[in-house]
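During the reporting period the student researcher (J.K.) took over the structure-prediction task from the postdoctoral fellow and processed the backlog of single-chain submissions. One of the processed entries is reproduced below for the supervisory committee.
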Amino acid sequence: MEVVRNQNGSYSAHVFADRAIKIVRQHALHNRDQPLFLYMPSQSVHAPLEVPGSYKNKYSFIKNASRRIYAGCSTHGKEKYFEIIYIYIFILISLLIVVLFHIYIYIYIYIYILFQ
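J.K. obtained the following structure tokens:
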């Protein structure tokens, strides 16, 4: 694993989530038969509280500035985790489709042989 040096100005949750998604995709393509343990702690809700402006603006109804930023941090962190979960769901659905297709083919062959 290399040190990231070209992400100045990037929000850390974006960088970590993008890298995690890349790791999961690469694992699904090349190492599917091996287990994958992915630990990704979030820095989003730790000091200093910083969040992209679009997430802070979602909570403009919150009067306290620190709470507004914290709410934006929480929302942003959850969205990034859901992106990773969606990748896993997509992979599982893909595998399920392949398994169901194979079951269908075996049943079709069995019925064909049985009634011939």
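The committee noted the following: Residues 65-114 form the longest helix (50 residues).
J.K. will present the remaining backlog at the next meeting.
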